[in-house]
């Protein structure tokens, strides 16, 4: 079975690549508002499933207490909540909205019988990213997302450590997939605000490279520092898993809940994307369990 260090290194390399690609994505591919929100809904559903179906049950097993696990879930949720409240960094949108994806839908949704949609459409002429760029500093956004990425690294390392202890052949696969798919959005958010602020292309690429290292750094801190306690202290690992469940819940909620107000025009598409994300979390859990069972039977033989 592959060691914790090598498996974690492979995941971190993929996360690093995904983050670097995300920062360059607006320069390479034309993304519409709808496509981006569909991808966000899928990843949010995946993270929601990982938090409730992977992290939380494993944390309860390690802690031998559901009550204690929920306390740490709440702690993780609040930490991520206050990071987002004070840094205002968690938005996924494009710097320039597609008229077919934004304004036409807003006009359709807001204009009713005898209603006046002119002022409403004007107020929605810009995307959320446009409005955020006027209010946010890319410095604060980069700092907030870097702290967020450090927690992603913690979650990834804790999931791999828990999987290795359970003799899972694909330890941490679900968490790795959630982080890898989510990183391009975060990197793109920083690049979007830097572009809106007039930063040079070299500056954007430099910061994107530094930002991409945040998650591997968080994983390394856990592996070389806190990870040494997990071999002899299952409670520590359980607390870490529950804490990460809370951060994933907050991230998923911050991506999903705004859809109720801002994306009613694509309610069916976004709902299907959410269900597909949850389905992926379930299938990954079964894949990990199957690999663990196969490995266990092989060791027994």
Sheet bearing the most strands, described?
none
- Element order, helices and strands? HHHHHHHHHHHHH
Radius of gyration: 20 Å
Give the rounded overall mean pLDDT: 74
Which class best fits the helix and strand makeup? mainly alpha
Terminal-residue CA separation: 15 Å
Estimate what percentage of residues fall within beta strands: under 5%
Question: How many domain modules?
Answer: 1
State the shape: globular
Poorly predicted sequence stretches spanning 5 or more consecutive residues: 96-126, 128-136, 295-301
Instruction: Give the % helix.
Output: over 70%
Tell me how many strands there are. Answer: 0
The number of helical segments is 13
Give the arrangement of secondary structure elements.
Elements: H1 4-28, H2 33-63, H3 66-87, H4 103-110, H5 118-123, H6 128-135, H7 138-165, H8 173-196, H9 201-212, H10 214-224, H11 234-256, H12 259-262, H13 267-300
